UniProtKB/TrEMBL annotation:
It is found in: Endoplasmic reticulum. GO terms for cellular component: UDP-N-acetylglucosamine transferase complex. Its EC number is 2.4.1.141. It catalyses: an N-acetyl-alpha-D-glucosaminyl-diphospho-di-trans,poly-cis-dolichol + UDP-N-acetyl-alpha-D-glucosamine = an N,N'-diacetylchitobiosyl-diphospho-di-trans,poly-cis-dolichol + UDP + H(+). One of its GO terms (biological process) is dolichol-linked oligosaccharide biosynthetic process. The keyword Plastid does not apply. InterPro entries: Glyco_trans_28_C, UDP-GlcNAc_transferase. Its main location: endoplasmic reticulum. It comes from the Eukaryota. Heterodimer with ALG14 to form a functional enzyme. This is UDP-N-acetylglucosamine transferase subunit ALG13. Pfam families: Glyco_tran_28_C.
Amino acid sequence: MATQDQLMKLCFVTVGATASFNLLIQSILEQSFLRELRAHGYTHLLIQYGQDGKPLFDEFLRQYPPGSEGHHGLLIDGFDFNPDGLSYEMRLAKAWSSEGRVGGLIISHAGSGSIMDALRLGVPLVVVPNPTLKDNHQQELADILQEQGYLIAGQYWDLTTSLDRAEHLRVKMAHWPPISKDQQTSQPSLDQVMCDELGFLD
C-alpha cells in the first residue's frame, strides 16, 4: 500500500487534436505555475501539447532537464496526440487508491468533447478558452458551465489562481450534475447546456 507521500497527484493538460494552443502550453510551463502546482501537492504533470506544441515542450526540457530545479519536484511528460483518444490519460487524474493515486486535475481547451469526457470522470476541470480561434463559442460555453457549477473557467494568463478554485470545486463535487441551492431541482444537464449554447455536440 502506497503511503500518502508516495501517492501520485496528476495534472493532465490537453489542447485537443486540431487547433494549436501554444499560449496555454507556454503558461503551463511557466516557473510560477509549476511552483504553484507543486505547492498544491501535485507530483506529476502530463501535457498533450498538440500538433505544434512539441518545440515549446522540447525547449523547456532543454532549458530545464528532468530532475533540475526548474521541474520543482514534478515528473513532467508530454506527447502530441493519441489516436485512441485521451480517456486513459484523463483517468490518471482520478483518485484510485489501489493504484496509488489521489484526485488530480484536468486542464483543457474548451472543446465540448473534451469537456464531456473530463466531467464524466468526476475530476475537477479547468477549461481555458483559446482566444486565437475565430467565430467560436468557447468563452460563452466555459462561462455558462462555470455558472452552473460544472467546472472552472480559466484564462491562460492566470492559471495559478485556477488551482485554488479547482480545489474548492473538488469539495463541492459530491453530486454531478451539481444540485441547485434549494437542493430540489437539478441544474440543466451538460447535454442541455451545450445544445442551448452551441446547437450541437461535437
